[in-house]
Amino acid sequence: MEISKEPINFSNEINDLYNNIVDNAPVGIATLSIDGHFMQVNQAFTEITGYERSELETMSYQQLTYNEDCAIDDFNIQQLLNNKVKSYRLEKRYIRKDDKIIWVQVTRSIMRNPITKKPLYFIAQIEDITSRKQAEKALQESENLFRNVIDNAPVGVVTISLDGQLLKVNQAYCHITGYEKEELENMSYKKLTYAEDMTIDTANVQQLLEGKIHSYCLEKRYIRKDDKTIWVQVTRSLLRDSTTGMPSYFIAQVEDISERKQIEKTLRQSKELFQNIVDNAPIGIATVSIDGHFIQVNSSLCKITGYNQEELTKLTYQELTYPEDLSTNFAKVQHLLEGKASSYQIEKRYVRKDGKVIWVQVTRSLLRNQLTGTPLYFIAQVEDISERKTVTEKLQKSMEEIADLYANAPCGYHSLDANDFFTRINNTELNWLGYRADEIIGKMKFSDLLTPASLRIYQENASQFKEQGFLNDVEMELTRRDGSTFTILMSASGNKESGGRYVMNRSTMFNITDRKRTERALLESEERFRNIMDHAPIGMATQSLEGQFLLVNRALCEITGYKKEELEQLTFQKITYPEDLILELENTRKLIEGKNSSYHVEKRQIRKDGTISWIQVTRSILRDTTSGEPIYFILQVEDINERIINREKIYQLAYHDILTGLPNRQLLLDRLNQAIASAKHHHRFMALMFVDLDKFKHVNDTLGHDAGDKLLKEMSTRLCCSVRSQDTIARTGGDEFVIILTEISSPQDAAILADKFLKIVKKPLSLQDQQLQITASIGIAIYPNNGLDAAELMKKADMAMYMSKDAGRDRWHFY
Q1: N or C: which end of the chain has fewer CB within 10 A?
Q2: 805, 781 in Cβ contact below 8 A?
Q3: What is the structure's pLDDT at 726?
Q4: How far is CA 81 from CA 84, 106, 802, in A?
Q5: Which residues on adjacent β-strands are paired with residue 812?
């Protein structure tokens, strides 16, 4: 290529303009010859290179250019010279005069002859970009560092476009979501977000865009590539353009918190379970501040104290504690606070809301700050032990009573070792013997106290007792200190060790001296009683509570017809007439229950030969003088059969018609009054009939009184067979009968019976070989229609009977 060597001629005007522009340019400007020498440079260029103008105008651009950058510069110059480009721009390094390497941006163009198009010179604009290059380098290093940090971050980091598309993601984010980078980039974050969590996410994004918040952090769910739902914590911020402030993109940090959420859930469930256990614990549980105020309480503590939760949390434990128990409680609390104990347990009293004092067992521990050891609060477990305290006190009292009972029991107690020496003895036995305990225990044998006869009994039973281990109700005599004797009834039990060797025994004994004396007296008394009983003129016996004859005398055997041996095998129920048994059993029950001490009754008995006879029984009960319990009956029996027969004869004569045996007027009036009372009580009717035999006097006059008596007896029999068992027929004199019909439904019932009576009376009968037909006239009075008392009804029935006679006889008539 041919390069022009012609000098350049500038006019003064052009030179002035050029110099003005170039010298005041903010960037370096230079003209260079085609061979690369600087022709003209401006002030800015000298400042960039550190050379003076005069120095630069003797230099080529190659001298300034960093050796490694020459090749690229030369290549671009050739492109200009060959007219392949109009200009070019490149960044390269200069070596300043002070040897400092700087970065410059060179924009070079070529000036050509407008006619020949031959290259004339180069024009270069040089800008010092060292600061920018340093900034770019720092930025690149920062970006490299940032990328390294992001790529290796333990949490997911993602940039998101304003429309929600994922731009860049790190490896941790891929791991969290299960997707590859290529799959995630340009995917919408909404595709990953659980549908129910979109609303709150969208709302926060909107606030970021509106500048209301700088960032937000929330927990939400992601749906991984494998469709598994996980929990993540997202911290999102918005990057804005530093110049315009307009939103550029979002940066989000995403942390997989599924495990933490599961732990939180488990912890929450654990807390809920713990709280449920606390709330439903059978004992009171509370947290208490260091100064004693209740912080939290469960329902059991409320139940124990009678306060509700709100009331309790306004109180201190000191206000609940019984005043006398405060000092002990305070000392225990101090030990906890001073670290002398980790917990304590105490029994003390609480004063309930209702004022009742109860016993509680409190177990208290202290919770401290794990780092500083500072006391935080107390944990108290409270159990109501009032019932247990009561039981304990009762048990203590019972043990004291047992000890007292042992010492002062009404019977003797002692224990003997294998060699028969006393090891223990109660006060009762000591008092019997007249010794002190220290005179007997370990010094005397039981056999030392026995009389010779009792010693033989004791020795005879000793080997068997040690073998079998028990002895029951053996009578023996003991010798007192003063030489006198007394009788005991002793029972004993032996103890053997595991190998079977006899080691000791315990004995119980009763002083039966008085009882033996009483038994002898009783035996003598029974012999006297037996003698009296055997010779008594009336029947006598003792009976068991079940009615069994125990002892019977000769007179009772004669009354019943049984032999003594036979009678003692029977019960009173067996020989009592059935109709009288209910009353007898009722009297027996009242005796046993103590309602009566004795009773007196007339009843019938069935003798051995089957005949029935009347007896008078006086029965009393013998009871135990100590317990009052019934033991047996004492029976006195008198034969009153003849007396009863005579009494019945007298009764018959007094209240019955001698001829017919029917009730007479006196008995009639008694029964009539009873019938009126019953009808009144039951609101029923009652009828009274007067029946008069027509022309009875004619029979008497023609056939005689004997025939008349036979007629009356026959009519009596006929009428008796025609009435009910509850009705009464009476003969009040002559040929007149009176009938009481009790509790009829209506007066018509009386009319029906009256017709029946007329027919019965009119039946023919034979008297002294004559056939007779008798009629009757009947008058009827009705209660309460015709009267309310016996006299009124008798009067009205009599009047009605005469109405029947006046009407022609053989008929009945109501009053």
Answers
A1: N
A2: no
A3: 87
A4: 8, 17, 185
A5: 778
Residues ≥6 apart with Cβ < 8 Å to 541:
549, 550, 551, 552, 553, 556, 567, 634, 635, 637
DSSP letters of 239-250?
Answer: EE-TTT--EEEE
What average pLDDT does this structure show over 394-398? 82
Residue keyed to tokens 């008085």: 514
Contacts of 378 (CB under 8 A, 6+ apart): 287, 288, 289, 290, 333, 336, 364, 365, 366, 367
The span from the first CA to the last CA of the chain, in angstroms, equals: 183
DSSP assignment of 109-140, as one string? EEEE-TTT--EEEEEEEEEE-HHHHHHHHHHH
Q: Which residues pair with 234 in a beta bridge?
A: 218, 254
Give me Rg for the CA atoms of the chain. Answer: 70
Per DSSP, what are the bridge partners of residue 780? 689, 814
Domains along the chain with CATH numbers: 12-135 (3.30.450.20), 153-262 (3.30.450.20), 280-390 (3.30.450.20), 409-511 (3.30.450.20), 517-645 (3.30.450.20), 656-814 (3.30.70.270)
Cα distances (Å, whole numbers) of residue 348 to 290, 318, 327, 352: 19, 12, 11, 13
| pLDDT score at 768 | 80
User: SS in 3 state form for 500-526?
Assistant: CCEEEEEEEEEECHHHHHHHHHHHHHH
- Residue indicated by tokens 């509680």: 360
Rounded CA separation 526/533 (Å): 10
Paired sense of beta strands 87-95 and 215-223, if any: unpaired
For 47-65, the three-class secondary structure string (H helix, E strand, C coil) is HHHCCCHHHHCCCEHHHHE
Could you tell me the maximum CA-CA distance found in the chain, to the nearest angstrom? 217
Phi, psi of 475 (to 5 degrees): -85, 130
**Top mean-pLDDT range of 125-129, 199-203, 512-516, 530-534:** 125-129
pLDDT tens for each residue of 635-677: 999 888 888 777 776 666 656 777 888 888 888 888 899 999 9
Percent of the chain as helix, strand, coil, to the nearest 5 = 40, 30, 25
List of residues 6+ apart from 306 with CB closer than 8 A: 352, 353, 354, 356
d(CA 735, CA 722): 18
Region of 125 (left: φ > 0; alpha: ψ -120 to 50; beta: rest) is: beta
pLDDT, residue 30, reads 94
Distance CA 617, CA 599 (A): 8
Helix axes 696-703, 705-720, angle to 10 degrees: 140
